[in-house]
Structures are given as structure tokens and as C-alpha cells.
TrEMBL record:
Keywords: ATP-binding, Kinase, Nucleotide biosynthesis, Nucleotide-binding, Transferase
Keyword Protein transport listed: no
InterPro entries: P-loop_NTPase, Thymidylate_kin-like_dom, Thymidylate_kin_CS
NCBIfam families according to UniProt: PRK07933.1 (NF005923)
Protein family per UniProt: Belongs to the thymidylate kinase family.
Residue span, Thymidylate kinase-like domain: 48-173
Name assigned to this protein: Thymidylate kinase
Lineage: Bacteria, Bacillati, Actinomycetota, Actinomycetes, Mycobacteriales
One Pfam family named in its UniProt record: Thymidylate_kin
Enzyme Commission designation: 2.7.4.9
GO MF annotation terms: dTMP kinase activity
Keyword Nucleotide-binding: yes
Amino acid sequence: MGVLIVVETWRAHGSSVATLAFPRYGQSVHADLGAEALRGGHGDTASSIEAMALLWALDRRDAAEELRKLLADNDIVLLDRYVASNAAYTAARHHESASGSSVEWVRELEFGRFGLPAPDLQVLLRVPVDLAAERARTREAADFTRDRDAYERDGDLQARTGEVYDGLASDRWMSEWIVAGPDSDPQQLAVQISNLLHNGQGVTR
């Protein structure tokens, strides 16, 4: 996988690297409640945009101490679906752009009230909606225990979320951004990120 190659490239050049993926399914009650809601559980929870955003945000808040330790102990920390993910999906569900009030609400909640570390650099993996949907269907077919959730089944939502992500990257929301695609060379991407960070810490995607 591309992400693994990026991490292996950094390590081959002597950097200590840690990774953490959100939501932390199986580790966080908030993440598990969110996943269950997206598959029809917990009444009307999934219909509340802010309720779902709060669950994802609380998952990250509960990981804040672990995240700070990873940052202290490693040269690079790669986070999968950090705060920008919540901002993009929340805005998209409200049919807002990256400059809408939802993005600011998520920023104040997670970076302000919860005090989560701000990223030094963010990487947008821009995947066409059709390709992302096909990958989700393939995962579902390969694993009968993993059905697509409500977000994955909603092609219009995925398209709007992609537009918000593009806006966040264009606006340099919370940090500099790199935009990569499915054909990007992982080793070249690793070098590009390293050059931009100048041996700093904290990479999110």
C-alpha cells in the first residue's frame, strides 16, 4: 500500500515514525458508537450532523495524551483522518463550503476547546468518487462482516466532501497542504513531505 511505502521510505532514511488512524474502532467507545450509528443503531443519532461530529471529535480528544507522547518520541507522526476529516464531512452534510460556519465550529471544538495539536502539514489524498466507491464495494465483497456505512453509500455526500477538502487545501486550513492522487509515487511523496517539514513533527492526512 502507498502509505506503507511512505512510512518505510522515512524509516529507511533514519526517521522514527509513528502512525495513528481515526476513528479508533475497537479502542474508543465514541468511535464505536459512531460506527454503529452509521449502520442504523442508536435511534436518530446518525441524522444529527453535530452529534456525529461530536462523536468523532471526542474520539480524538481521548487520544490527545497518546498523540502528544507520539509527537515527543518520534520525528514524524502520520495521522489518518485527523480534524480536517471532521470539518470536511460536517460542512458537506450541511451543504457548506470550506469557508462555512461548520468548518469554524469544528476548528474551535477540536483545536480550541479540546486542545488537540495542530498539524504541521496535511496531505490530501484526492481519490475520484467513483474509484473510492468501487474500493468500498470491493472491501465489502471481500469481507462479509464489513458492510458499507451510510457515508460510504452516499455518492453525493462523498462528492461534496471532496469539494470541501479541496477548499481546505486551497485555503491552507490550519497548515500547509500537499495534494496527492492515486497515481502519485509514494517514495517521491515521502521525500516531498520530508523536505517541507524540515525535520519537524506531525504529519496528518
